[in-house]
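re: that complex we talked abt at group meeting.

here r the seqs, copy pasted straight from the sheet so there may be weird spacing, ignore it
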Amino acid sequence: MRFTKAYIPTTKESPKDAQLPSHIYLSRAGFVAQVASGLYNFLPLGKRVLRKIETIINEEMAKCGALEVDLSFVTPAELWQESGRIEKFGKELLRFRDRKDNLFVLGPTHEEMMVSIVRNRVTSYKQLPLNVYQVKTKFRDEARPRFGLMRAREFVMKDGYSFHASTEDLDREFDAMEAAYKRVLERLGLTFRIVEADSGAIGGTGSKELMVLAESGEDTLAVCDTCEYGANVEAARRAPRSVIPEAPQADFARFKTPNIKSIEDLSGFFHVDPYYTLKAVVQRAVYTEGSELVCFFIRGCDELQEVKARNSIGAIDLVDATEAELAEIGLVPGFIGPLDQDKIRIVMDNDVRGATHMICGANEADYHFVGVDLNVMNESPFADLTAVQVGDGCPHCSGKLLHTKGIEVGHIFKLGTVYSAPLKAEYLDENGRSQPFIMGTYGMGVSRLVAAVIEQHHDEKGCIWTHATAPYLVNVMVSNIKEESHMAYAEELYASLQARGIETIFDDRKERFGFKMSDAELIGFPFTVIVGKELENGQVQILIRATREIITVEAADVLAKIEELSR
RNA sequence: CGGGGCGUAGCUCAGUAUGGUUAGAGUACUUGGUUUGGGACCAAGGGGCCGGAGGUUCGAGUCCUCUCGCCCCGACCA
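got the structure back, here u go
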């Protein structure tokens, strides 16, 4: 492609609405242009990157025997009513009516549609397994789109769905998809981590997220400094504590603790480690229908992890309880304990099961119990409720957990029969019995990956594309197009690079050296061959974008050098 | 959906507290000339419903009311 024939509108200034590096540079370098909140146009360069990522995904899917399909973007609302997700998705589902007044939605994900294309067609276990996918525009009417392409309303996602006759076969496919996704990210040249994730209210037996590591990531991950273990903090686990503080010696007693309400005050008052105090966190749990107050008990040294807490009781949402709500049911903030009270539903953290030497509220103003043996609570519900903290032990090895930020570019789920059962998507097993499909689902954010590459690879000059994602691998730049011999050499080099199948752009614009260099760095081609005054000595230079190093090579050896560098 | 901010040339922004010539700058664009290794210089041009509607006023980019859009923080985000 000749620059003079291309459409690459670069700008010196960044759009005022852009905050993130990916948003700023993708806009400035002419890859994308914003249309409205959460809506973007992909310009020629952006489209090339998108297609490259898509191609790599398609190639890896083909290796796994997954079949590409293309489902309608506009989907009848009935399907969503059938699965019950029309309410669940709420306003994120963009709905509208056609001329005949039928209700439709723009597909935000395609579980329902995918199930509908196999149900009543795939009818026998002999036709299983089946893995179908598409790379398609999705639309979610997000309450607050932000961060440029990272959280757009309209975006491109690869969504795949597999159908199985057994959980063992689903497990096999799930592992195969994890491996395929890993290969995709490796080929794209990204640094990433595959982490355990919260499966959410959608259920299923397991899910993993693919996280591209970047400062600007929206998700916090707990990762082991030694082994491969990583998890979204929403789902992270930790090893049992290795260092247990010395236990306070006290017989069970009710103790006057005037105005001692916080864990800090309490541990100070009794001179005990917060480990031996019991923290009560009261939340109003909101369900599909109705709500109730729930008290979560965890050790004083721990923090409640909200997603875990929510999952432990199947709530949709948790909101802080007000003092008035507590007073209404007769609880005194600061003095709430699990013993001898039936005023509120409680959930205990796994780590306090059988705990002894504890201090907890006595459910009476200005009184705590000391020397509590929580074995008396063994009949109450327990769950993992706590957030892992930096320095906690890895659950798989002797390493320590660290926190890092990630961009979620993929999420794979073992769905089981969550969709197939309500949608009555069934097949006949060996015994002629009707069974719902056992399903898996595998998503990858294609347009988000475009942004993720830049979040992970950029500098103060602009984009730094990896070899696999670059819109063009090589930029042949003539510093002064009036020099006929320079142009002649560049034309020849351009032709021979193309003949070798190397994607090349030829900067033949009538611009000054500095202007073209800045553009080359802003756009971020991996290699820019500078054809200029060095040619008098039979040499040209190559700018290596990643390091901004400029190397001088013999004019005759450029092709070989590029091939060597790009290997 | 709560809180905050911003809408003026393709882009980035002045101008709005205190209403008053023909609404400005930089950049980008067009033409001519001089330049040619890190976003050059000179000259001449084109480009605006001052987000929209209503109001106050002799007069509104500027004041009032309503609205629409965009961004940020939070809530939300299978």
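couple things i noticed - Chain A is about 25% helix and 30% strand. Chain A has three domains: 46-231+402-455, 253-383, 474-565.
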